[in-house]
């Protein structure tokens, strides 16, 4: 009886190598297709409208500094931090998935106590008007 070898014959090695390369190429192509599909799904959720004012940051910062100059009793407020929290709340997010929780830090930074005697007339806050 001839001695049997545990090694694969060259023909079998060639077939296994070819099948292995084919499977590897198939996995790479499938990964690319899946990545492109997922990226296109992400883009469909993004806002497609005209957007807002081109100088939105300057507008918000200008109004913030102006409001703080007119209301020195508010103390020190960091307008740049307020702008950062505003952008953190909404920037590059699906408009349909933004919740009140996204605004919590912004509300904490802009919150102010309004004395009762000021509510006798419309009262201006940093970003809104309070009407009694």
Strand content: under 5%
Order of helices and strands: HHHHEE
**Shape, per Cα inertia axes:** rod-shaped
Average pLDDT confidence is 79
In the CATH hierarchy, the third-tier topology of the largest domain is known as ADP Ribosyl Cyclase, Chain A, domain 1
The CATH superfamily of the largest domain is identified as: ADP Ribosyl Cyclase, Chain A, domain 1
Largest sheet strand order: 1-2
CATH class of the largest domain equals Mainly Alpha
CATH architecture of the largest domain: Up-down Bundle
Domain tally:
2
Query: What's the alpha carbon Rg, rounded to whole Å?
Result: 31 Å
Number of helices: 4
| Quaternary structure | single chain
Low-pLDDT windows of residues: none
How would you describe what is shown here?
The chain is mainly α. It folds into 2 domains: 9-43; 56-130, ADP Ribosyl Cyclase, Chain A, domain 1. The protein is 52% helix and 3% strand. The chain contains 4 helices and 2 strands, in the order H-H-H-H-E-E. It has a two-stranded antiparallel sheet. Helix 2 packs across helix 3 and helix 3 packs antiparallel against helix 4 (104-110). The longest helix is centred in the N-terminal third of the chain and has 35 residues, at 10-44. The mean pLDDT is 79.
């Amino acid at each position: 009886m001839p001695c049997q070898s545990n090694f694969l014959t060259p023909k079998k090695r060639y077939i296994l190598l070819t099948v292995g390369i084919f499977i590897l190429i198939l996995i790479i192509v499938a990964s690319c297709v899946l990545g492109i599909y997922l990226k296109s799904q992400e883009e469909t959720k993004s806002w497609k409208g005209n957007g807002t004012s081109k100088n939105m940051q300057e507008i918000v910062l200008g109004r913030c500094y102006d409001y703080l100059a007119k209301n020195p009793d508010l103390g020190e407020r960091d307008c740049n931090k307020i702008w950062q929290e505003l952008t953190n709340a909404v920037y590059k997010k699906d408009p349909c998935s933004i919740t009140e929780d996204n605004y919590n830090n912004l509300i904490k930074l802009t919150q102010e106590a309004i004395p009762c005697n000021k509510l006798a007339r419309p009262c201006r806050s940093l970003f809104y008007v309070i009407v009694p």
